[in-house]
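Researcher: Structure for this, please.
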Amino acid sequence: MAISLHHGDLPADLSFGSVMAIDTETMGLNPHRDRLCLVQLSAGDGNAHLVQMPRGPIEAPRLAALISDPKVLKLFHFGRFDIAVLEHALGVRCEPVYCTKIAAKLVRTFTDKFGLKDLCKELLSVDLSKQQQTSDWGAEKLSDEQMAYAASDVLYLHALKAKLDALLKREGRTDLAQAAFQFLPSRARLDIAGWPEIDIFAH
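Model: Predicted structure, token format:
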């Protein structure tokens, strides 16, 4: 595993192929209040690229172009939050997308455990550490432990997708999952626009 730290944007010569795992670290869970601090990416090759964001307005044209590229599938775990954060911070619509948490909820109806740590342990026999989850991501210099934690959030998403795709096919829910994924960017936009906890489809 190799972890590369970049400041402000991605290098011009970096390529991620057709499926890119992505995650974010922020100062909190409110995109309007809490700034984006870190964006993690992986092409599924065992390498993680971390982009540390500065305070103030973000100008990351290469990262924004990659996130909004319609030819690149963006792979998330709980994409609803990350998609909202990225659109709010970078001003770009993130699609097409795939969310391992949504896929897991559609096929693993025998459990209520859908966290990344749970899925990695049960589907991949990988035990992730979540010790740095609530650390200060706005720090000017990230610790080695923070970077390792951040990288782990994207390094296993491709393998999880493969496992979950097989389960979706087995259970006949691939089309349902795809429909949910297609709606996810719109769900994130509803969050940003002020409907985070309201089900607009309810009576």
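Researcher: Any notable elements?
Model: The chain has a mean pLDDT of 95. The chain is about 40% helix and 15% strand.
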